[in-house]
Each structure stands twice: as structure tokens, then as C-alpha cells.
UniProtKB/TrEMBL annotation:
UniProt membrane topology term: Multi-pass membrane protein
Database matches in InterPro entries: MetI-like, MetI-like_sf
PANTHER family: INNER MEMBRANE ABC TRANSPORTER PERMEASE PROTEIN YDCV (PTHR43357:SF4)
Species of provenance: Sinorhizobium kostiense
The protein's name in its UniProt record: Spermidine/putrescine transport system permease protein
Lineage top rank: taxon: Bacteria
């Protein structure tokens, strides 16, 4: 028994080492950006000659970067609102037992997650050019809604898989209409799934660059597009500072999503008990 225990312990340690090494290999290029954002010199070099907050100060004081940040926040917020509403309604419709062609509709709704982004960007460009939505924040919001809504559909559909439809029948028997039953019975129970989908939609919009390159003008530059332009035109450590802020921002969002998913699983377990 002692030999078997030692062997299992060695295997467990080996798995931890392999897993940790793999994780380090994947995140090392990302973590390497953070120290460079504090470089005192305007070069991407190691070892760094000194530390400075110069590039963060330049980001927060530059009108160009502030405009890009403002555009990214505006577009992401409105795209998230639209994606959450449309995606939640679509998921509720797909969860109904009498929904016709459910598989086909689901495939269509989540296709923006499967189709390469550049292909979707070309299609959006030609469609929006025909109706005059290019070079506008409205067009960018609608385009990011198309990209973000599938994430809401997927997460809300997963949340609805554990929802007891008998609760809706009970609400109807007590005099609640369909809308009232959804708002007062269904939504509170699937709220973690809706919130997770909304966060995914927000991150998708905030980090998106390909569609922005196709349909946004110079006044509608988002933060990722401004970073792209900076890499091509003037390779400044300010880009590293922005990247470091985005890494922290994305990590916080990921932790929030994990917390919401854990809360949803806990609620599902309690309902089953």
C-alpha cells in the first residue's frame, strides 16, 4: 500500500509540474508585457535601465488615447445591453418545448462564434455600407452586438437547462401573465447565467479589433484599434501600458465570470436538493 501511495503521489506531483509548466508557457508572453510598461526608456528591451510611470501618464493625458478609451466604453456598454436583451430573449424562445427548427435556429444564432471574424467583418462592412452605417459608433455597436449576442445565448441556454418549467406554470395558475412570470420568476433564477453572458459580450466588444478596422473611422477609433495603429506607426511603450491595464481588466472580468458560474452551479445544486 505504501508503494502504491508513493507512486500515486509521484504521478500527482508530475501532473502538477506539467500543468504548471504548460500554464507558464502560455501566459509568459502576456506577463512579459507588464514590466515593459514601467520601462524608463522608450524601447522594448530587457534588462530595463530604470522604472517609470511615464507611459501610464501619457496614456491618461493623451487626447487620442482618451478618445479611444471613451469610444470603447460607449460601444461596449451599449453592445452589451443589446446583446444581453436579444440573447436572453432568443435563449428563452429556444428553451420552449414547442420551438420549431430549434437546432437550425441555434446554429444560426451562434454562427458568429464559429465563422472567422475577418469573414464576418467583410460581410458586416458590405451590409453596413449599403445602409450608411460605416464610420459611426452606431454601426460599431450593432456590429459588436452581432458578435456578443451568441455568448449570451449560450450561457443563458445553459442556465435554462436547469430551470424548472413547472415554476412558470405555477406562476400562470396564480394569475401572472407570460411577461410577469418571466420577469419575476425566471429571470431571478437565471440571473447568474445572464450576467455571465453579459460579461462575455462586454469583453468581446471591448477587445475586438478586426471589425473596428473595417467599419470605424478616425473619430470612432476604439482602444484595440488605436493599439493596432500604434504598433504599425509608432511603436511606443504606451502600448505596453495600455496592454497591462487590459490584462488586469480582463483578469478581473474572468474572475467575476468564474464566480458567477460557481454561484449558478450552487443554486442549481440547492434546487435539486
Amino acid at each position: 500500500m505504501s508503494a502504491a501511495f508513493s507512486f500515486n503521489r509521484i504521478v500527482a506531483i508530475g501532473l502538477w509540474v506539467v500543468g504548471g509548466g504548460t500554464a507558464l508557457f502560455l501566459i509568459a508572453p502576456i506577463l512579459a508585457i507588464i514590466p515593459l510598461s514601467f520601462n524608463a526608456e522608450p524601447f522594448f528591451t530587457y534588462p530595463m535601465p530604470g522604472l517609470s510611470l511615464r507611459w501610464y501618464n501619457e496614456f491618461f493625458s493623451s487626447e487620442v488615447w482618451k478618445l479611444a478609451l471613451r469610444n470603447s466604453i460607449i460601444v461596449a456598454v451599449f453592445a452589451t445591453l443589446l446583446s444581453t436583451v436579444l440573447g436572453t430573449l432568443a435563449a428563452i424562445g429556444l428553451s420552449q418545448s414547442d420551438c420549431p427548427a430549434r437546432a437550425t435556429l441555434t446554429a444560426i444564432l451562434i454562427s458568429p462564434m464559429i465563422v472567422p471574424v475577418v469573414v464576418a467583418a467583410v460581410g458586416i462592412y458590405y451590409a453596413f455600407a449599403a445602409v450608411g452605417l460605416l464610420n459611426s459608433l452606431t454601426g460599431l455597436v450593432l456590429a459588436h452586438t452581432v458578435l456578443g449576442a451568441p455568448f449570451v445565448v449560450v450561457t443563458v441556454t445553459a442556465a435554462l437547462s436547469g430551470f424548472d418549467q413547472n415554476l412558470m406554470r405555477a406562476a400562470a395558475s396564480l394569475g401572472a401573465g407570460p411577461v410577469e412570470a418571466v420577469l419575476r420568476v425566471m429571470l431571478p433564477l437565471i440571473a447568474p447565467g445572464v450576467a455571465s453572458g453579459a460579461l462575455f459580450a462586454f469583453v468581446t466588444s471591448f477587445d475586438e479589433v478586426v471589425v473596428a478596422l473595417f467599419i470605424a473611422g478616425s473619430e470612432e477609433r476604439t482602444l484595440p484599434r488605436q493599439m493596432w495603429s500604434g504598433v504599425r506607426e509608432t511603436l511606443s511603450p504606451t502600448i505596453a501600458a495600455v496592454a497591462a491595464l487590459l490584462i488586469v481588466f480582463s483578469t478581473l472580468f474572468l474572475a467575476t465570470i468564474q464566480w458567477l458560474q460557481g454561484r449558478a452551479e450552487l443554486q442549481k445544486t440547492h434546487r435539486e436538493e
